[in-house]
Amino acid sequence: MKNCTYIKYIIFTLLFSLPLFAEPIEILKIVNPPVARISEENVISVVVEVQSAAIDSIVISNDMNETFHLSVNSSRTHYCKKINLHLGENNISVNAYKGATLVKQEKQTVFLTSKVHKEYRYPPNKYSTNFFHNNTNEKVCSKCHDMSVNEVPGVAFEDISKSNCYKCHSTLASKKHAHAPAVNWLCTSCHNGKVGIYNQADKNKSKYTYPDPIRDVCFSCHEKNKNKWSKKRFNHEPAESGRCNKCHNSHSEQSEFYLRTPAWELCTGCHKDKIEGVHIVRTFTSIRHPTHNKKDPSRPGKDLSCISCHNPHASNASSLLVDDTVHGLCTRCHEK
Ligand code: HEC
Ligand code: HEC
Ligand code: HEC
Ligand code: HEC
Ligand code: HEC
Ligand code: HEC
Ligand code: HEC
Ligand code: HEC
């Protein structure tokens, strides 16, 4: 009886694996991105596998009118191109041509999320995180790319193009303000493969997960900040709960301190009701104190914003004021 089930099992397995062996290479197949991936970075790698005898060029395009022409040579099976994404749903299409004839078209969608803009925070249900760095995926690339980690912990690359990660992720640290560990390609200082209380479900899904909350990783290098903030009486919820990456991009950003947007936009993303500044001057009349679009008299060269009056992390004063008293705060910018 036992043997019989065993033989049935073998026949079953053979039957269903045979067609797989026989599967011909398709003319064009999108290897990456997978179906409906959620992306947290505004660049994604398009990798296609082709039957090189059947076509002689590929055109990859996004829905921002960017197109890339790649010519196909007879010996190469895979073609790769990084393309830009915009917030929300992105349509990527890949066309394969023989001469001027369109031989095949393949499409894929990707959703770029945002931690700042509420309308892009939660992608529609069909999208999922879909991590890339597992053994199955890496095996495909390793025919041509070195997939190993070649960073020495704490030692910056003299030539960053020598980092194995750089070859595929080169745009990551290229925005105006770049964070030291990212720009030195010490990627695994944060992407240590661990998970935290908020991303338990990601455990073992990728070699390069990071623990969420990320705080302890940040504090491993920013110990001074840890010590300073832990002594304060009041802490700002998103910082205290360790979600430093809600406000800071860990890699690079257009704004200083790698803030995801300039401070005012960042704060009002979560505190819309404070835009009008009605909360600032408490009298019987509801004076609207400006919160932006003015110069900040207390910080020469900077614009007035929420952080002119509030510390984004911690403070000894209630409402996270940058001064110990409300009176002291007003007199930073106004004569008594
Ligand atoms: C047949 C060899 C081959 C395979 C397999 C391959 N690549 Fe590439 N890839 C290359 C070459 C060669 C380049 C350099 C640019 C070029 O010549 O197209 C490259 C460049 C890239 C780039 C940079 C593109 C850009 O726009 O800067 C990325 C990202 C990339 N590959 C990702 C991948 C991923 C992910 C896989 C596996 C799913 C993969 N590649 C599989 C050969 C390959
Ligand atoms: C052959 C190209 C390639 C190389 C080399 C590579 N990556 Fe990736 N990586 C990808 C692709 C493709 C994705 C999926 C997102 C995308 O399409 O850009 C990705 C995603 C990631 C992610 C998001 C988590 C995940 O698994 O999806 C992290 C973190 C990451 N890479 C870190 C690294 C680090 C660190 C290195 C160097 C040790 C590295 N990568 C080397 C192609 C590559
Ligand atoms: C200071 C910590 C830190 C460093 C250093 C760092 N990362 Fe990240 N990375 C993160 C965090 C946190 C996220 C999660 C998304 C976010 O907060 O924007 C992330 C997200 C990513 C993503 C997007 C994941 C997705 O699903 O779309 C990729 C790709 C990535 N990192 C690759 C790298 C590479 C390559 C390096 C090395 C140059 C690197 N990271 C260095 C903290 C870091
Ligand atoms: C591997 C060490 C390391 C890790 C991990 C790390 N940082 Fe940094 N960070 C640095 C270095 C080095 C600098 C540049 C020197 C400096 O200004 O302190 C820096 C600078 C910064 C700055 C700018 C400081 C300034 O005054 O200009 C911010 C903001 C910052 N990091 C935030 C973070 C956040 C948020 C995390 C966690 C997601 C983090 N860092 C994780 C090493 C690290
Ligand atoms: C609510 C948004 C927000 C959160 C959450 C946040 N930060 Fe910041 N961070 C800012 C802003 C805004 C600045 C710029 C402050 C300024 O210009 O005075 C800043 C500046 C910094 C600086 C440089 C200036 C300094 O005070 O040393 C460091 C380092 C830093 N943050 C680290 C972190 C770490 C680590 C965490 C997580 C524990 C974190 N931040 C969480 C908004 C945030
Ligand atoms: C990711 C969402 C988020 C962002 C971004 C954010 N906050 Fe908050 N903030 C909160 C939450 C949650 C609380 C606690 C609950 C509440 O009071 O609404 C809070 C509380 C506060 C408080 C009241 C603290 C107290 O002790 O009464 C101040 C002041 C404040 N935030 C200022 C800021 C400033 C300034 C910025 C921009 C640098 C900012 N917030 C960005 C979520 C955010
Ligand atoms: C000119 C200084 C100033 C500016 C600019 C300012 N605030 Fe305030 N904020 C205050 C003062 C003063 C209080 C009240 C302190 C008290 O009464 O204890 C306060 C209180 C708060 C509180 C907590 C109390 C409450 O009513 O919920 C939040 C949250 C807050 N501000 C967010 C913001 C945000 C977001 C911005 C930017 C849009 C901003 N503030 C701009 C001075 C300022
Ligand atoms: C970081 C600097 C700063 C701080 C702190 C500050 N203010 Fe102002 N305040 C300004 C600026 C800038 C203006 C606009 C001046 C102009 O229009 O030229 C302004 C305008 C005002 C006005 C006139 C509003 C109107 O309707 O025209 C009043 C009243 C006022 N502030 C009261 C206060 C009080 C009370 C405090 C303390 C709770 C305070 N301010 C804290 C910068 C500040």
Explained architecture:
The protein is an alpha+beta fold and 336 residues long. It folds into three domains: 103 residues, Sandwich (Immunoglobulin-like), CATH 2.60.40.10; 115 residues, no CATH class; 66 residues, no CATH class. The chain is 21% helix and 19% strand. The protein contains nine helices and twelve strands. A five-stranded mixed sheet has the order 2-8-7-4-5, with no helix packed on it. A three-stranded antiparallel sheet has the order 1-3-6, with no helix packed on it. Helix 5 crosses helix 6. The radius of gyration is 26 Å and the shape is elongated. The site of one heme C has 19 residues, from helix 7 and helix 8.
Distance between the termini: 96 Å
The general outline is elongated
Sheet/helix structural class: alpha+beta
Low-confidence stretches: none
Domains, number = 3
Q: In sequence order, what are the helices and strands, one letter per element?
A: HEEEEEEEEHHEHHHEHEHEH
- Roughly how many Å is the radius of gyration? 26 Å
Fraction of residues in helix: 10-25%
Q: How many helices?
A: 9
Strand order of the largest sheet: 2-8-7-4-5
Listed once per kind, the bound small molecules are: heme C
Q: Average pLDDT, to the nearest integer?
A: 92
Number of strands: 12
Strand content: 15-25%
Largest sheet data: 5 strands, mixed
